[in-house]
Amino acid sequence: MHYHIILTEKCNSKCKYCYEKSMNEFENGLDKKWKFDFSAPCDSEVSVDKLKKFLNAGDTIIFYGGEPLVNFKKMKEIMDGLQNSGIRFCIQTNGKLLDEIPYEYIKKMDKMLVSIDGDKKRTDYNKGIGTYDLVINNVKKLREKGYKNEIVARMTINSEFNDLYEQVKHLLSLGIFDSIHWQIDAGFYKNDFDEKKFSEFADKYNSSVEKLIEFWIDEMKKGKVLRLYPFVGILNRLMGWDKETRMHCGSGYANYTITTDGKITSCPIMNNVAEFYAGNLESEKLKQFDLDEPCDSCDYKNICGGRCLYWNKAKLWPEEGDKLICKTIIFLIEHVKNKIPEIKKLISSGKISEKDFEYEKYFGPEIIP
Ligand code: SF4
Ligand code: SF4
Questions:
Q1: How confident is the model at residue 23 (pLDDT cuts 50, 70, 90)?
Q2: pLDDT for residue 272
Q3: pLDDT > 90: what percent of the chain?
Q4: In what order do the strands lie in the sheet with 60-64?
């Protein structure tokens, strides 16, 4: 099982798609739909002893926030307390403090997701001037120190831009990331839907996805399977290698979140929402969550899995907005599907192998953008 653990709700960044939007979104109506529970402290007070009893060897903890490295003290306490317990550690971080954390802790991370949106111009526009250089230098320094485990570049695509192809190629060209995942910032806030703008974005984004799939295949022809998570995850389902049909992120069945007071919720975004509590650190069995419409009766459900539990339940965008989001998902699925004969040929010729497409599920990349 995978568990995100919220070390702190504080963050040392003010990103456009997170901080700025949440500041502008006092009224989204969810307080009428769900019960918000603000009793949890800002910094994690979870007992390491309770964690030890709750977790099993082989489980994975993904440190999460806010920005998890802002509360390194708690991260250290948990890592020290759980050493030799067979628990694996991963982290999702904005990367700004990576150089301030003792390397002996960083090197114990099996995998790392580092937020970066593309080149310097793009990243600094979204996340603040100086962010790109700071984060890229920190990742470079980790590589110089010998960190060989997977580092995922975790991009957020906002609908102001539609150059996914160029931005992904830029991140690949740096040679410091093993893999890339992106998610579109769409449907997560009530007041940011603009039909004309998003519709134009969706068309251009789709063209960019198409170009990127061509590039992905060209690289396969040279013997290299690029770990672009949305493509790899969807292909695994289309090929039947991944038999799961539920949400790729695992939220609410294979991936839960431990809140700062030790409650278990379905996903970090549902941190304070009582309806999504699945239990606590004493629970023997955790509640599971199913999706509602439109995913329930969608022909693509088994491959897509339903994009996101929060999006599906919160329904912050109007139906026409959600339909546009699904149009991008279906486009991506169909275009990966079209490449299956070519991919099969490359596998049977020995150029690449089925093994090249294997990946660990549920540690962070949600697969469906
Ligand atoms: S394509 Fe859209 S409606 Fe269909 S399963 Fe995915 S998210 Fe749900
Ligand atoms: S896709 Fe949605 S439900 Fe899944 S982890 Fe991300 S925010 Fe949570």
A1: low
A2: 84
A3: 89
A4: 227-228, 179-184, 150-157, 109-115, 88-93, 60-64, 2-6, 255-258, 263-265, 277-280
pLDDT one-digit tens code per residue, 339-369: 999 999 999 999 999 999 999 999 999 999 9
| DSSP secondary structure letters along 186-253 | -SSSSTT--HHHHHHHHHHHHHHHHHHHHHHHHHHHTT---EEHHHHHHHHHHTTSS---S-TT-BTT
Query: What span, in angstroms and rounded, lies between the C-alpha atoms of 157 and 167?
Result: 10
Return the residue matching tokens 């995978």.
2
Rg of the chain, C-alpha, whole Å: 20
Contacts of 290 (CB under 8 A, 6+ apart): none
DSSP string, 65-114: SS-GGGGHHHHHHHHHHTTTTT-EEEEEE-STTGGGS-HHHHTTEEEEEE
CB-ligand 2 contact for 308 (6 Å cutoff): yes
Say whether pLDDT at 232 is over 70.
yes
Residue with CA at minimum distance from ligand 1 atom 1:
326
Does the N-terminal peptide bond of residue 294 adopt cis geometry, omega within 30 degrees of 0? yes
Instruction: Read off the pLDDT of each residue in 179-206 and give the average, rounded to a whole number.
Output: 95
Centre a 10 Å sphere on the Cβ of residue 185 and count the other Cβ atoms it contains. 21
- Tell me 18's DSSP state: I
User: Rounded to the nearest whole angstrom, what is the distance from the C-alpha of residue 359 to the centroid of ligand 1?
Assistant: 23
Only one residue has tokens 């599971």, namely 288
**Coil vs helix vs strand at 258:** strand
**pTM for the whole thing?**
0.96
Compute the CA torsion angle 327, 332, 337, 342 (nearest 10 deg). Answer: 150
Cα of 165 from ligand 2 centre, angstroms:
23
Whether 267 lines ligand 2, by a CB cut-off of 6 Å, is: yes
Residue 319 to residue 248: CA distance in whole angstroms: 22
Homologous superfamily of 2-357 in CATH? Aldolase class I (3.20.20.70)
Quote the tokens at residue 115. Answer: 């937020």
Tell me which H or E stretch contains 5.
strand 2-6
